[in-house]
Amino acid sequence: MRNVFALALALLSASPLSAQEGARLPLTWENIFTRSTGARQAVLSPDGSRVAVTATTAGASGIFLIESSGGTPILLVEGGSSPVWMPDGRAIVYSAQGDFWRASVDAGSLPLRPASGHPDLLQVTRNRQGGRSVRPSPDGKSLAFYSGRSGSQDIWLVPSDGSAPPRQLTQESMAPDDFRFAPAWSPCGKQIAYFSNKADYWEDDIWIVDVTTGEERQLSHGLMASSSPVWSPDGSRIALLATSKDEYWYEDLAYIYLLDPGAGTESIVPMQIHATDWLHNLGVFWSGDGGELFFPYLERGRMELWRVPADGGVATRMTSMGGHFRSYHTSADGSAFVFVRSTPTRGSEVDYLTSAGGQVQQLTRFATRWEGLAEPEEISFRSWDGLYIQGFLFLPPNFDPSGRYPALVQVHGGGTNSYPDALNTTEQYLAQKGYVVLAVNYRGGSGFGRPFQDLGIEDWANGQARDAAAAAAFLRTQPWSNGKVGIYGFSYGGITSMAAIARVPEAFDAAVPMAGIYDFADAYTNADRLGKIFIKTGHGGSPDERPAVYAVSNPLGRIQNVETPVLTMHGEADVRAPYRQFQLATEILAREGKIFEAHSYPGEPHGFRNPMNRVDMYRRLEAWFDLWLRRGGPDR
């Protein structure tokens, strides 16, 4: 009987962990876009003892709790997202069903569900008008959050016990279509720092609002914010990532700025490197004594955590993890960190590290365990002007150097970002299907210093497109090449794909540009705010001010040169790369008599929300490359 009981106990204790482990799945488009699991966000409790993790697992989706020392994750809330800890560490606040909720982390009868009426789950707001980036006040009595219900992105306040409806605090602080960053309470709880374009539509300044009176004042004047502001522990300074208004709008190569709310001054922390905001999603943290700053920095596709004295000096790297992290967080005293990180052969999991350094500890096993993943090979190839460009080379399983393979060039999105050495299931899948895939970090991107990013200034879709063409030429020289090379990319990758076949017509045998901008001057008139700023800063001014620069970046003006069969796809609700770009491209391709197919997706914005539309898009991409790179066209 003792052995039977022991076996039953072992099975019971093992079952929660196995249920929360990622499933082992083959790489298919449907699995990638509909069954992929993993961690999405992780936040440490104020004392650093526990971690709240937003994740999707094989059996559940919601907010999990796990001890920072390790152990089995527990599903706290079913279906919630974006958790933040209350200051006392006894509850979290999160988003669900268009409202904010507060959940006790020591509740019984888990998981908590919004419809359950559980006494440990409190609905704070009840209007389903949406909100984001909620932050509790230092005393835990109020919550500040952003909402567009006023017609602009403003900060609203609501009691954390839900005893009163939300009240608007700021007035017209940000454009309604700009959803970046979070409000930041001062340690005393009397002020909130936030970013605003109230002074100038084209600028991202830091402002401060008095919580009691609602009085607002502009604090910064010379910077463009790239992250949320963060107060020092004593409230004397505010740190953030930002670029200077009199420089290029560098992405992932920001300064750390310090603002003095009392004196109204701003200064750059001197150090030998820059900081990485990664699409304005990452920021900076203070140490508990206010003497140090922690920040991420991307080099050659890999993200690591760094430390610098708050007054400046030599920055030193704290981690040697490799891979890439999409978010990170620290305890209140800066003594511990968590990262949501992936590697080329591991999905997004939560890793933990203390400020003493050493090796990171993996806390979760949520991510899908994809079959057949392989480490890509990091290479460099010589480009058209002698520069060497980094690439990650994905090879088919059981690759035979004496065989013959078609090849693909992947060009990343963002333009001023880079291709990360992380889990990239699209390239892994295509390699498993027999393609050699080279993902290139073309000029103008991040991870190689500002001089490398400077190469793209006022030269968008030109030198970058030629880098992609040089990658194709390099692949054709390899002894295994069957002579056929395709190119594909999404967003700025779509731009570069279209530009490459227009500028170097002989470079590619098939192309799939997706969700790109092909006439920046036209997109300037109808993109969302962030898109307009990106276009204006990248070209050094408006189309009226810099017509010659816009002529350089215009692939549509060179469509007559295209010899490559093109499949172009786009979301019809896209405002970052406006849908009109797709319409213009297809109209000109048809008028010029080019070989092309086009497909658009009703209701889809730039990021695509319906996973089955992504499945359809990439099935079409694969079929297009099979047609032209394997079979030689429809008549072969």
Give structural notes:
This protein is α+β, with helices and mostly antiparallel strands. Helix content is 19%, strand content 33%. The chain is built from eleven helices and 39 strands. The strands form nine sheets. It has an eight-stranded mixed sheet, sandwiched between helices. Strands 18, 19, 20, 21 and 22 form a five-stranded antiparallel sheet that branches. The longest helix is centred in the last third of the chain and has 20 residues, at 611-630. The protein is globular and about 70 Å long. Mean pLDDT is 94; it is low at 1-18.
Task: Point out poorly predicted stretches.
Answer: 1-18
Helix content: 10-25%
Number of strands: 39
Percentage beta strand = 25-35%
What is the overall silhouette?
globular
List key phrases describing it.
alpha+beta, 636 residues, disordered N terminus, 5-stranded antiparallel β-sheet, 11 helices, 8-stranded mixed β-sheet
